[in-house]
Design brief:
Elements (H helix, E strand, L loop, with lengths): L7 E4 L3 H13 L4 E4 L37 H15 L4 E2 L2 E8 L6 E8 L7 E9 L1 E4 L6 E2 L7 H7 L4 E4 L3 H14 L9 E4 L9 H5 L4 E4 L5 E4 L6 H5 L2 H4 L9 H6 L31 E5 L6 H6 L3 E4 L4 E4 L5 E4 L4 E3 L2 E4 L3 E2 L8 H4 L21 E3 L3 E3 L2 H16 L10 H18 L14 E3 L3 H11 L27 H14 L5
Helix pairs in contact: 1-11, 11-13
């Protein structure tokens, strides 16, 4: 069968889904379709989900629209809209939610159970349907489903009679006006209760608009995320080079510098934010042994740390929220303290977006996947199922694009460096899992199935090199020798012609004489 013939379903229209569809379309696949429950492209970056003050924390410096050294949520939302309109016209089916995916019992490919949604905000469930696809790529990520601790969901709040608004960071875009309304109603009070934000990560720091408008805000956290920052704009070669990545280990150490530095520990940078020496915000997770890291870029006069230093944001460190108070207007902490709250916002991360699937085991998604483009080990030889966007990366644009080429080459049945059998793939996945547990001892790496692919946070350039090597393409594209390579800027232009390189390699492989 011509490998271009079987249909491809891309589940999700976020950043990973859009590029994962675009690459096979360019490669000539005849039937590529994105399925999304939303009514516009962008995934977590759709226009209705981004909000004022939202900025990306990944590698930056490639967009002329950046503000204060960062790309905003509005910028990325506009980009995904333009990308879908220019490259994927007619390839995206909106208002379709994938409820389950299972192997096709009649042969290769998968059966996809769908539920059609109305395009209204009520999202009324309509008819159900099952479709057959020759190939499927999961691109729905792990940032859609809010994670609440036991006793702290909005239903728990309603059950105990809490009168304030309860939101998760995932709700701020579509429901942010409600939060501002709460803030407005308390302005006339002599001593209004604050909006309480639970969590010490980036999503818990994003509600600066409240403090900037004069609303009382209190943040409750057990440990603060580590962060990198500079009081002045860093040169591009430092921000966008491989310099940071070589300080963090990777299973494949390609240069003498990496082999020499792979055990070097990096420090925490707090002085750029002018934090007092005794500030609890210095009590951060270890940047070296963890992935709980924010890249603050250039400090802002109205940014989170400046507002804390100015006394406009109160904080309760080394504390966790446990339940809502029976008085209907407070949040109770684990140590028994009760704090007043006009509203509570939980920046408590996310849970797996795959949790509704009944056939995770059948697809091999409950076990460790191969540390490449996240192919389930049991399906490695089938070449009809893959995942993109499940590898944690500090530059998801670059790594997702390289992974999209890997997946397209995989579906095209190109000659690649692949493990021959599911048993071989499982052995490699187990080695990768052991390495990740040693590399990130403070992180429950497999806390959701979405993140069992791989973690390539600071060392994303090396991960991209792994994928390029699998495809038989050249690596360390930023140039330089073993000594100067870490100081070379990683430019997205260096992967612009991956399709042409793959085409040339495929043609050369066809012409190559077969060994006797």
């Amino acid at each position: 069968m011509n490998p271009l013939t079987p249909s491809i379903a891309i589940v999700g229209a976020g950043v990973a889904g859009l590029i994962t569809a675009h690459v096979p379309v360019r490669d000539g696949f005849r039937n590529v379709q994105i399925l999304t429950r939303d009514v516009i492209p962008g995934g977590v970056w759709t226009r209705d989900r981004v909000y004022t003050g939202l900025r990306l924390k990944n590698v930056h410096g490639d967009s002329p629209s950046e503000k204060d050294g960062r790309l905003t949520g509005d910028d990325l939302s506009a980009y995904t809209d333009a990308f879908a309109s220019k490259f994927l016209e007619g390839k995206i089916e909106y208002g379709v939610e994938v409820r389950d995916i299972r192997r096709n019992p009649s042969g290769a490919g998968s059966l996809v159970d769908l539920t059609h949604r109305a395009t209204s905000q009520k999202e009324t469930l309509l008819n159900k349907e099952t479709r057959e696809y020759g190939r499927v790529v999961m691109c729905i990520g792990g940032c859609n489903e809010p994670n609440f601790s036991d006793g702290l969901s909005s239903s728990d709040a309603a059950a105990i009679g809490f009168r304030g608004l309860v939101l998760h960071s995932a709700d701020i875009g579509p429901r942010g006006k409600e939060l501002l309304t709460v803030a407005d109603t308390t302005k006339g009070e002599r001593n209004p209760a604050p909006v309480v934000v639970a969590g010490g990560g980036k999503s818990a720091q994003e509600y600066l608009i409240l403090a900037n408008q004069g609303q009382k805000v209190t943040i409750v956290f057990s440990k603060f995320d580590s962060f990198t920052a500079s009081s002045k704009s860093m040169p591009g070669w430092m921000r966008k080079s491989r310099l940071m990545s070589v300080f963090f280990p990777h299973p494949v150490l390609r240069t003498p510098v990496e082999r020499f530095l792979h055990k070097t520990s990096t420090g925490k940078i707090h002085d750029a934010m002018d934090l007092p020496r005794d500030s609890p915000l210095r009590d951060t997770s270890s940047m070296y042994w963890n992935i709980r890291t924010n890249d603050e870029g250039i400090p802002r006069a109205n940014g989170f740390h400046a507002l804390v230093n100015a006394g406009k944001i109160a904080f309760i460190p080394r504390a966790r929220a446990e339940r809502f108070g029976s008085d209907g207007q407070s949040l109770v902490l684990e140590d028994g303290r009760s704090i007043p709250a006009s509203a509570v916002v939980f920046g408590t991360r996310y849970k797996s977006s795959w949790s509704t699937f009944k056939t995770l085991s059948e697809l091999g998604l409950t076990a460790q996947t191969t540390p490449r483009a996240s192919v389930p080990t049991k399906l490695i030889a089938q070449r009809d199922f893959a995942i993109n966007g499940a590898v944690l990366s500090a530059n998801f644009g670059y790594t997702n694009e390289v992974a999209a080429h890997w997946i397209s080459a995989y579906f095209l049945e190109d000659a690649m460096r692949l493990l021959a059998t599911p048993a071989d793939a499982r052995a490699e996945a187990e080695r990768a899992g052991a390495w990740m547990r040693a590399r990130y001892p403070q992180v429950p790496v497999a806390r959701t199935p979405n993140i069992t692919g791989y973690v390539a946070f600071w060392n994303w350039p090396q991960h991209a090199d792994d994928l390029l090597e699998d495809m038989g393409l050249w690596t360390r594209r930023s140039g330089g020798n073993w000594l100067t390579c870490p100081f070379k800027v990683v430019d997205p232009e260096e992967i612009r012609y991956l399709k042409e390189e793959r085409d040339a390699k495929r043609a050369a492989d066809v012409k190559a004489p077969t060994a006797v």
